[in-house]
Amino acid sequence: MTSRETKICLFLQRRFAPIGHTMAVILNKKYGVEQFCGYVSMRSNLELLKSSKNPRYTKLILDEDIYKFYKTESVDLNYLNLLEKEYGIPNLWPFVDSDRIVRHGLFLREYPYDFPLHSHEDMLKLTQVYAKAAIQFLEEEKPDVIIFPVIEGLTTLLLYHIAQKKGIKTLFIQTSRVGNKYTITEQYDDLSYVRQTFEKLNKGDASCPEYRKLAQKFLADFRDKPASHEPTDVPSQRPITRKQQFAFLSPRKIGTSIFWIIKIFIDYLQDAFRDDHTKIKPWHHVFDRTKRKIRVLVGFEDLYDEADKNEDFAFYPLQKEPEISITLFAPFFKDQLWLTRQIARSLPIHYKLYVKEHPSMFSYRPRKYYKELKKIPNVKLIRPSVSSFDLTKNAKLIATITGTAGWEGILLKKPVITLGDVFYSALPMVKNCKTIEELPYIVKTQLENFNYDEEKLINLITAIYRESAPLDLSQIWDIEGGSQAEKKEEEIMPIVDLIAEKLNLKAI
């Protein structure tokens, strides 16, 4: 199939839409791809894409428009049974449960808000209308591949599984957790191309000497000076003190703060589509942020414990919520309070369990959450300002659901236990716990019979270098919000080149 014949579908959600569109521009200019279609969220994104003259999209469908059809939909049990038989994993609950808006009311409200927007019956209707829309869209457009930035819930998960059944290639852009490298994968729960290369390296069917040197250097540099692959998720880059949290009230900033609050209300009232289900109500915005500031004002200092590097301890860093890495990759372990209790009671009786908040979650969890943690006899709650690397270096064991702390632990030769689906579980020295009853025995094995394998680790990092490209996505997506994507063609081009390689596209 030539570039001209290839049709690419892009899932263009929220702040990724300008980035995805820039990728389409590169694929068109550099590789001659002429046919694109898109599944879009947010009307502002739809208007941006409709105005594009090159490339043009054969069809764009909007999530907010599809959503409204559920109001006139009737529950069809026969259709739902058919969907469950065709696409269930093994039922349809993972599709609904992974959707933070539909299932939990989040995104519209801040964590820890947890109240579903819909009744059970309405959830069934939403599943029907989204499935029908996805099937019709794919059958009409017949794309050869769908490119996703993330799996974000009901819509994307349905689109992925329906595409898989129809033989449509699916590609995801995923962080490799090695520097600023991003990789492409055909599966949302694994790094498929990385794993394939990793297995070839283990069998001796590949060598990749140039990438192996890079892997060895990365490992040596990391051990000499550990650094997070995500620079915005370290304590020094987050407002984790009372002073930082209330900086908006300083004489220099209070005027700007008031201006933005007024602007949020005016923009909402002037928005003709303010009733779209993805629109955040400005009063909720103010209310939820006020609650957060009150939590910070009351403080958490009296709840923190001091770390002692001379005692035996395991380290469990709390993961960010809501996150698909928990709701989809570890659905039965997503209650982190309950999970902490299970980890704590799985340790040798004299061990402590050090628990530390994720830097980006500071002020979101209420005091009562941490008080419940403190009721566990062998738990110590560590200040979020403490470096996770210092804790990891001194810990006897790292436990994580799917977090980067587990990957960093392995890089530092520590025993690691994972409780969800994550790529580094492919390493033989990482133990994955599927059922909670196994956990005490896995802990015992990792503490007493940990067999570190440097060769396998270097092979995995080598595979990552071979199957990834540099991309500062946190800057383009998280910090700039995608607004500067059209000016970032050169920065986005390497990941597009990697996508083109996987699609066998040739530069024109």
Task: Report what the structure shows.
This protein is an alpha/beta fold. It folds into 3 domains: 220 residues, Rossmann fold (3-Layer(aba) Sandwich), CATH 3.40.50; 60 residues, no CATH class; 161 residues, Glycogen Phosphorylase B (Rossmann fold, 3-Layer(aba) Sandwich), CATH 3.40.50.2000. Strands 3-2-1-4-5-6-13 form a 7-stranded mixed beta sheet. Strand 1, helix 1 and strand 2 form a beta-alpha-beta unit. Helix 1 packs across helix 22, helix 7 packs across helix 8 and helix 10 packs across helix 20. This is Capsule polysaccharide biosynthesis protein. Pfam families: Capsule_synth.
Quickly list its features.
508 residues; alpha/beta; Rossmann fold; 3 domains; seven-stranded mixed beta sheet; six-stranded parallel beta sheet; 22 helices
Low-confidence stretches: none
Q: Got a strand count? A: 13
Kindly report the spatial arrangement of strands forming the biggest sheet: 3-2-1-4-5-6-13
Helices, by number, come to 22
First-residue to last-residue Cα separation: 14 Å
Structural shape: globular
| Second-tier CATH architecture of the largest domain | 3-Layer(aba) Sandwich
Mean pLDDT: 95
CATH topology of the largest domain: Rossmann fold
Helix content: 40-55%
Number of domains: 3
Largest sheet: 7 strands, mixed
Helix vs. strand class: alpha/beta
Tell me the strand percentage band: 5-15%
- Supply Rg: 24 Å
Specify the CATH class of the largest domain: Alpha Beta
Pfam family, one: Capsule_synth
Protein name: Capsule polysaccharide biosynthesis protein
